[in-house]
């Protein structure tokens, strides 16, 4: 299952903004449809992707980073036994996050804590706005 | 006074029923619960007679200056309770929390394990 989160970066057109306003309630109800659920936030220097994947070691996860996307892949294995109730999802999953900004691929870090994966992607230096001083002649 | 303040504080977090598996194996029952974001310190397991209550809080810090792009999960309080059968040896219940999954092992009591009945000849 691949989910494309297209207008993540730079939603400037009115149409994009309209889409975004429609998204806010929708994104909550998306819980349960797309697995694993993830949150994306950013500040001036980094993009943070947080993902709820309980019961996985970070070594069992397959994180692939290209210039424009981050792919999180893995498989949740089930326990053998006689099931009385099964609500936890099992099987392989995959999610893709599109990144529409230049990133510093060599300094991406990922860590897992209490079943929550956090990937920190630094934005590339080239992309930062620079102040140009104008000298009055 | 303070009790109501605590209650109001708890009500802020939405309650979530954690996804749970209940499995029977040879050495007893196992309950697995997905509780991502819950640290060991924030997890409370109460056993009261036949009731097990599990609750845990998941809170994510939101540093100032971060813009939120896309949200699918958030802070929450996990809560779920179970009634334990009489077959379970309540003194030997074990719990462990690894990578956001709580494992409860409920071993069967000795007397409920199947045994052969010897027939005495009269």
Task: Please characterize this protein's 3D structure.
Chain A has a single domain (6-78, 88-127), classed as Sandwich (Immunoglobulin-like), CATH 2.60.40. Chain A is 12% helix and 36% strand. Chain A has one helix at residues 14-29, and strands at 38-42, 46-52, 62-65, 69-76, 82-86, 91-98, 109-113, 116-122. Chain B is mainly beta and 122 residues long. Chain B has a single domain (14-61, 74-112), classed as Immunoglobulin-like. Helix content of chain B is 8%, strand content 47%. Chain B has one helix spanning 2-11, and strands at 15-16, 20-25, 28-34, 38-48, 51-58, 67-70, 76-83, 94-98, 101-106. In chain B, the strands form two sheets. In chain B, strands 1-7-5-4 form a four-stranded mixed β-sheet, with no helix packed on it. A four-stranded antiparallel β-sheet of chain B has the order 2-3-9-8, with no helix packed on it. The radius of gyration of chain B is 20 Å and the shape is elongated. Chain B starts with a helix and ends in a 16-residue tail after the last strand. At the A-B interface, helix 1, strand 1, strand 2 and strand 5 of A face strand 2, strand 3 and strand 6 of B. Strand 5 (82-86) of chain A pairs antiparallel with strand 2 of chain B, so a sheet runs across the interface.
């Amino acid at each position: 299952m691949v989910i494309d989160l297209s207008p993540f970066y730079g939603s400037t057109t009115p149409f994009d903004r309209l889409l975004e306003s429609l998204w806010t309630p929708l994104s909550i109800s998306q819980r349960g449809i797309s697995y694993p659920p993830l949150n994306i936030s950013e500040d001036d220097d980094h993009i943070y992707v947080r993902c709820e994947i309980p019961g996985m070691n970070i070594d069992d996860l397959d994180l692939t980073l290209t210039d424009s996307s981050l792919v999180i892949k893995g498989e949740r294995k089930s326990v053998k036994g006689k099931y009385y109730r099964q609500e936890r999802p099992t099987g392989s999953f995959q999610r893709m996050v599109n990144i529409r900004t230049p990133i510093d691929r060599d300094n991406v870090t990922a860590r897992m804590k209490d079943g929550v994966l956090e990937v920190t992607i630094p934005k590339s230096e080239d992309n930062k706005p620079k102040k140009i001083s104008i000298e009055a002649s | 006074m303070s009790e109501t303040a605590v209650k109001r504080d708890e009500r802020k977090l939405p309650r979530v029923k954690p996804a749970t598996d209940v499995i029977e194996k040879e050495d007893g029952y196992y309950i697995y619960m997905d509780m991502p974001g819950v640290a060991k310190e924030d997890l409370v397991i109460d056993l009261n007679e036949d009731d097990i209550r599990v609750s845990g809080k998941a809170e994510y810090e939101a540093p100032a200056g971060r813009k939120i792009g896309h949200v699918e999960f958030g802070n929450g309080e996990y809560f779920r309770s179970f009634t334990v059968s009489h077959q379970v040896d309540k003194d030997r219940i074990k719990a462990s929390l690894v990578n956001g999954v709580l494992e409860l092992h409920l071993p069967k009591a000795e007397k409920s394990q199947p045994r052969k009945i010897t027939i005495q000849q009269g």
